[in-house]
Amino acid sequence: MREEPHEKGKTASVRLLLGGLITAGLVLAWMRYGAVLGNRPQDLAHADASTARMAPSAARGELTAPERLTVDIFRRSAPSVVNITTVAVREDILRRNVMEIPRGTGSGFLWDDRGHVVTNFHVIQGASAARVALADHSSWEASLVGYAADKDLAVLRIKAPKEKLKPLRIGESQNLLVGQSVFAIGNPFGFDQTLSTGVISGLKREIMSVVRRPIQDVIQTDAAINPGNSGGPLIDSAGRLIGVNTAIYSPSGAYAGIGFAVPVDTVRRIVPQLIEFGKVTRPGLGVQIADQELAQRLRIPGALVLGVVPGSPASRSGIRPTRRDPNSGAVVLGDIIVGIDNEKVDTPNDVYRLLDKREVGQTVRLKLKRGEREEQLQIKLAPFED
User: Fold this and answer.
1) Of 77, 107, 122, 192, catalytic
2) Residue 315 pLDDT > 50
3) Neighbours of 384 (CB within 10 A)
4) Is 152 considered catalytic here?
5) I want to staple 225 with a disulfide (CB 3.0 to 4.6 A). Which of 136, 229, 277, 283 is the partner?
């Protein structure tokens, strides 16, 4: 059958319309596909050109001399640093049993190849048990050897094989300089084997121990010291121990740029006594003196003697304690120490600071205020245990 001319024109128009719709659909699909890929169709060629122009990765090259030094110090010192975990015993009254609960973590370091570990006293204070994790992540039950609370030092011991025990090299702190580089290794916030770097910011600082006794000649550093770093080593650029990280100054409780370390010269004097005797003997007079708070409340300059140990050098020298008058019941203040040798005593802490520099058996000259009079006595220092 033959089509009429007007039918031919109609068919061509339909075909043209369908072709246009199909083409538009393909373009729209292509644009959507490009959008899904994150590129518009016109951007693809540009992206290919950018990729072609991208420079190859450059070789790192050698580390700088300071970087090599830092890496070497960490590599040599880290095997001597340990992680300390403590637990406390709590009694469950309802179940009538005793539970061990985690108490906290801290750091420490190997002192010798016999398993002695040095840390802060406040790391193990109040704990019933402790475990020490070495750098190879092996864990060992620790026993307490001894502690010196007034210096915030303690010694633990583990029974690990000798080949696992790599003691830290011991340096000295008397010739340190402000500005020299230092390195702190520890376990802040539970992250083990962490290194922070800085400089010595100050020397001859004084901080208070957990028993409210002054620790003298403390090292101040800006190396980051956070909770968990306590008890870890402060190391010099020769890889030697120069201090034990013990405290931070921070209103928030986190690192604020000021950390403190007990100087290694103090550590070298205290730790051997703890290992041998389990305690520290220090030179003393045999007196109990009023604490700082009471002295400030009474507005007494110097160190007020509250009590005298029977048979002590102070007792034999006639130093008078604070007492009550048997007739009136009024409190009679004892002698007030206002000087030791040629140095002035303004506060009770000055007595601890000055005697800490003396030796057992050494004779000192005390300047006392007794009522309205001043007295001077010669006293031979005797050993006393903390």
Assistant:
1) 122
2) yes
3) 16
4) yes
5) 229
Write down the residue that tokens 């390195």 correspond to: 183
For the question of residue 356 being annotated catalytic, the response is no
d(CA 357, CA 204): 14
Is residue 323 within 8 Å of 330, Cβ to Cβ?
no
Question: Which tens digit of pLDDT belongs to each residue from 205-242?
Answer: 989 888 888 888 999 999 988 778 889 999 999 999 99
Instruction: Average the pLDDT over 17-29 and give the result.
Output: 50
Identified catalytic residue from 150, 152, 236, 350: 152
Q: What is the structure's pLDDT at 98?
A: 45
Nearest one of 172, 194, 181 to 237, comparing CA atoms: 181
Q: Across-strand partners of 376?
A: 367
Provide the pLDDT for residue 192: 75
Instruction: State the catalytic residue, choosing from 80, 107, 196, 230.
Output: 230
13 noted as active-site residue? no
Whether pLDDT at 19 is above 60: no
**Which residues neighbour 338 within 8 Å (Cβ) at sequence distance 6 or greater?**
301, 302, 303, 344, 345, 367, 368, 369, 374
